[in-house]
Write a structure and sequence with these properties.
With 190 residues, this protein is of the alpha/beta class. Helices cover 31% and strands 22% of the residues. Strands 2-3-1-4-5-6 form a 6-stranded mixed β-sheet, sandwiched between helices. The chain has one domain: 3-Layer(aba) Sandwich (Rossmann fold), CATH 3.40.50. The longest helix has 17 residues. Helix 4 links the parallel strand 5 and strand 6. The radius of gyration is 19 Å and the shape is globular. It comes from Halocaridina rubra (Hawaiian red shrimp). This is NF-kappa-B inhibitor-interacting Ras-like protein 1. Keywords: GTP-binding, Nucleotide-binding.
């Protein structure tokens, strides 16, 4: 386990950002609790990567965005090693915010290559309550060169795969060619 990676969790109001973190990290369910908007919160979790190593991630749970407030405060971008963008499959406006959020990240991120994943929450809803279908979300994600997962807090296993993927991308295995090759020998006299 190396350094702690900082992950900014961002999305529209009421999309379930806090519920995702509570369920994925602590296995807590907030289904029966009343909705309380988050101003800002921090979670720390040890996440197993796809390689089997364990990485420490610090998640910054941000206040929800809406039609009037479509970007993160600038200080989040200076901290970010990665992002989780959340929308609700039951709320088309939260899905439409993804474009503004992604532009904000691209414009303000401090590092060139910052891993971003997209979570479509509340995938357990019945079809008639769905406002965003998976094909639409996948087309948008493909245009932005991102990957999207549909998740819900009833099934914790659905939450773990994308977070493991993000942890693996935040702390990639060092390539064997990253060190210069050293050779021993004498210079030939010509």
């Amino acid at each position: 386990m190396g350094r702690t990676s900082r992950v900014i969790v961002v999305g529209g109001k009421g999309t379930g950002k806090t519920s995702i973190l509570e369920r994925a990290i602590y296995a807590n369910s907030l289904l029966e609790k009343p909705y309380v908007p988050t101003l800002e919160d921090t979670y720390v979790g040890i996440v197993e990567t796809e390689r089997g190593t364990r990485e420490k991630l610090r998640f910054y749970d941000t206040a929800g965005l809406d039609a009037r407030k479509r970007s993160l405060p600038p200080h989040y971008h200076t901290q970010a090693d990665g992002y989780i963008i959340v929308y609700s499959v039951t709320d088309n406006i939260s899905f439409q915010l993804l474009t503004d959020i992604k532009k904000d990240i691209d414009k303000n991120k401090e590092k060139k290559d910052v891993p971003i994943i997209v979570l479509g929450n509340k995938s357990d809803v019945v079809a008639q309550n769905r406002a965003v279908d998976l094909n639409t979300a996948e087309r948008w994600a493909a245009m932005e060169r991102l990957r999207v997962w549909e998740v819900n807090i009833r099934d914790r296993n659905l939450l773990l795969e994308p977070i493991m993927n993000l942890a693996s991308r935040l702390n990639p295995q060092p390539s064997k060619t990253s060190f210069p090759q050293l050779t021993m020998g004498r210079k030939s006299k010509d």
